[in-house]
Specification:
about 230 residues, alpha+beta, five-stranded antiparallel β-sheet, 5 strands, about 50% helix, flat
Length: about 230
């Protein structure tokens, strides 16, 4: 029985990641294959070839994205994009949805942005309990003034970070938190390594089995005098 249990666990460790990976790839390919339906019926590969070839939708979607990107990068295309944005901003219901999504996409995909470029160690959900968060920006305006007016800080000299605290093992959900910059510890690990650490629930420690414990100990020692917001 101990041998059977050992073999079962070893088999699961091999098969589960492979099955999930194949399932995700199948879902992506199947979803992108649906983009071929925007073509006229006579132009669809299924009609031209007389058979369904999985993955052609991926190639088609990639070609569409590259073509739009190339068009938007020149002067004429840039003017067309601005005209399109102005048109959508004139439609009452569409304006609120489009502008919100546009701001998020600009923040996430901008080459000059800092969103999800750094992994931080913050005390969450209370002092003395640490978790990994990702830097998304910095508050400004009235939000920053109200934060700087809170007791226990340095007033107008206080700097704050906007961070995203992901949940585990599903990092697509989480919490948006405003934390004092002095209460954050910037990690040397990459964002990909931090995500792996979160998804694995701490099982896979970046840099070795003891690296994570050393970083937490260093962060705790460096932040004993800081109180998070």
């Amino acid at each position: 029985m101990p041998s059977l249990r050992k073999w079962l666990l070893a088999g699961l460790l091999v098969l589960v990641p492979l099955i999930i990976t194949l399932w995700v790839l199948d879902w992506v390919v199947t979803t992108l294959d649906q983009t071929l339906h925007i073509l006229p019926v006579n132009w669809q590969p299924d009609q031209l070839l007389g058979m369904h070839v999985p993955g052609l939708g991926v190639v088609f979607a990639l070609a569409v994205v590259l073509s739009i990107g190339a068009l938007a990068s020149n002067i004429i295309g840039n003017k067309l994009v601005h005209w399109w944005h102005a048109l959508l901003h004139r439609i009452p219901v569409v304006r609120s949805i489009y502008s919100g999504v546009k701001q998020i996409s600009d923040t996430l995909f901008s080459e000059k942005g800092n969103a999800f470029r750094k992994a931080l160690l913050v005390q969450w959900p209370h002092e003395g309990m640490w978790t990994i968060a990702f830097l998304t920006g910095a508050p400004s305006g009235d939000v920053l003034r109200q934060l700087q007016a809170q007791p226990g800080g340095a007033g107008a000299q206080d700097e704050f970070h906007s961070v995203f605290v992901p949940t585990t093992p599903n990092p697509t959900g989480g919490y948006f938190v405003l934390v004092r910059k002095s209460a954050c510890v910037e990690l040397q690990m990459s964002v990909d390594a931090a995500l792996t650490y979160i998804v694995s629930m701490g099982v896979i420690v970046p840099g070795g089995p003891n690296n994570g414990h050393i970083q937490v100990a260093q962060a705790a020692a460096a932040s004993t005098t800081n109180t998070p917001s």
